[in-house]
Design a protein that fits this description.
Elements (H helix, E strand, L loop, with lengths): L2 H34 L5 H46 L6 H17 L1
Helix pairs in contact: 1-2, 1-3
Length: 111
């Protein structure tokens, strides 16, 4: 994958983790409420919470792998970056492109 695509995927995975954390908190609150009120759905929420934790672990592992690959790709890009700078060729660094993309996404969300 190219650097900007990988950064985009990393961004999406980070957002997915945030979403999972919110869902886990909500499920935990529902589970506690069910336990306090002796609701028979407590087991359902308990199972859901376990599934969410497993999914979160999976997304975390994918994110860690993507971050490692990204770090390696950026390290490998340094030689190219230095050659472009030495030749006086203007270019947009992949990290800068990604930052602009993230800012654009956030500004669209705010609108």
């Amino acid at each position: 994958l190219c650097t900007s695509m990988r950064m985009s995927i990393i961004y999406k995975k980070e957002k997915r983790l945030e979403e999972l954390d919110r869902t886990i908190r909500t499920t935990h609150i529902q589970l506690e409420f069910c336990i306090e009120t002796f609701d028979p759905n407590a087991k359902k929420f308990s199972e859901t919470k376990k599934e969410l934790y497993a999914l979160r672990q999976s997304v975390e592992e994918e994110l860690a792998m993507l971050r490692e690959k990204q770090a390696k790709a950026l390290e490998e890009f340094k030689d190219t970056e230095e050659a472009l700078d030495a030749a006086g060729i203007e270019f947009h660094h992949p990290v800068d492109e990604n930052n602009e993309e993230v800012l654009t996404r956030r500004s669209k969300m705010v609108e």
